Amino acid sequence: MYKLSISDKAFNVLNYGFLSFVLALTFYPLIYVLSASISDPAAVSSGNMWLWPVDITFEGYRKVFENNAIWTGYRNTIFYTVLGTLLHLCILLPCAWALSRKELMAKKAILWVILFTMLFNGGLIPTYLVIKSLGMLNTVWAIVVPNVVGAWAILVARAFFQQNVPDQLVEAAKIDGASDFHIFFKMVIPLSAPIIAVMALFHAVGLWNQYFNALIYLTDQDMYPLQIILREILILQEVGGDSAAGAVGQTENLLEQAKTAELIKYAVIIVSALPLLIVYPFLQRFFVKGVLIGSVKE
Amino acid sequence: MELSRVQVPSTVRRETRFHKIKKRFLKSWQLYVFLLPALLYFIIYHYVPMYGVQIAFKDYFVTQGVWGSPWVGFDHFLRFFDSYYFWRLLINTLLINLYQLALFPLPIILALSINELRLGVFKKWSQTITYAPHFISVVVVVGMIVAFLDPQNGLINNIIVAVGGEPIDFLTSPVWFKHIFVWSGVWQQLGWGAIIYLAALAGVNPELHEAAKVDGATRLQRIWHVNIPAILPTIIVLLILNMGNFMAIGFEKVLLMQNSLNLSSSSVIQTFVYKSGLLEGQYSFAAAIGLFDSMINIILLVTMNQLAKKTSDNSLW
Hints:
The complex is a heterodimer of chains A (298) and B (317). Chain A is mostly helical. Chain A folds into 2 domains: 52 residues, no CATH class; 233 residues, MetI-like (MetI-like fold), CATH 1.10.3720. Helix content of chain A is 73%, strand content 0%. The longest helix of chain A is centred in the C-terminal third of the chain and has 45 residues. Chain B has 317 residues and is mainly alpha-helical. Chain B has 2 domains: 59 residues, no CATH class; 233 residues, Orthogonal Bundle (MetI-like fold). Chain B is 71% helix and 0% strand. Chain B contains 16 helices and no strands. The interface between A and B is large, with 93 and 96 residues.
């Protein structure tokens, strides 16, 4: 090994310094929210709490756990995420497999029909009118069906099949008299665990975090997903689902709601975002893989 | 609901050819069954709305449907172009997106910087930490912005007051809106955006670096003359993709950050489509504005792609 020159040493110092700065800046808001969620709200709003928790209290979490709207939202989100992800896989995988087979006729035309949707779409209003005329407003289908699969996902899964399922294997099975159904369910699916995991994860994160479809397609409060409830608490600063709030007058009620929102906002952020943030480092390689296969040019 | 006409390849040209195709189809008919759900989805939820776009040129009445409503030509478009808010919407949309586009080099810089680290715990954690905000929902991110920037008890204003300043009401200020919007986006997507560049950098031939070292190149010189040229194709393709999404980026977040006081800076075409269409029920007018928006998008994407094709060998198609 040769010695590091002075300029290289200086570069290293600057580089580590720069990255530490970026990391601190990225991490600080998350730490702050975590600490604030278990600190006394007075210490948070006065600025006494700025990094580590001050006057630790779990009052915010207690309020969150007591709030019916949050739990209903949580339950709905889990339901939408699981159902939507299953539906995503059931539509995506067979389609991508079929498109990866060379014996499929009119493949170019079909691919073109799918890819064109990336370039142009009807837009918000015409799509809304279709959902409405199909009677899907206020049903779970309005949440899980629009965007159930995208051209990008199909291309990625198709590329995976082309690269990872050996053609000879499929040909050999065909000579043995296996049907396409048999080949897909008994051979392709078992070989494709990584791509299934990647696709399911991406779609599940998207469903967990989306609020806009629920905002426009759902009016029934019992069906609201967590993100809509979070929007009310964090941004509109209204807290529903509190049984005690009903008795108070209108203005007092609003004030009371704002106070509760102040108390629970950090706890509710943690409760909603923590599952993903905890699970994600373990699944990081899958997500990274997903981005990378996705970037492979056709 | 009417279905749009699906292109059917004209297979019935000659009898023999027809038989051949029939045979091929029967041999692998199950593959077409596999395709069916996805194709139905794309037809119903993408192509039917494309057919429905014609309401932009009509006066849509719910009772008369897409087909039965009367034509009005370009009336809605003209009304939009003539309205006092047209320029405001267009300028806000362009400014926010140009601002974001100008920060395009940031993930590249982060990737170049992480790439210079030796393999180890710090490198791994730099990636895990910078990717993490990507997984937080827009609602929570905007919720955090609201909490941090609160004029009475938010973190930022506490700091401003502590150093002797006057608290600033960031969230209702048209001046601050774009900065807050764009930089919170940088916070959330910086690391995630670096992933692709990191992968491209991992593919750089180490012999190039060895050769440069022998020639006495410093680290910075090697980054500039070896690493950056190596990832240039990736940079160009991603730039084109970004341009393709030019008019669309992040309107759901804009909507969450909007309030009546910052509207002059925060109303963009997409949020206006939502408000006039879904909240006010002006379906045709909103559809026309939406169509105008996606037309600009397509033109930009195609132009950028042509440009990239001409100036380098990198393009999407």
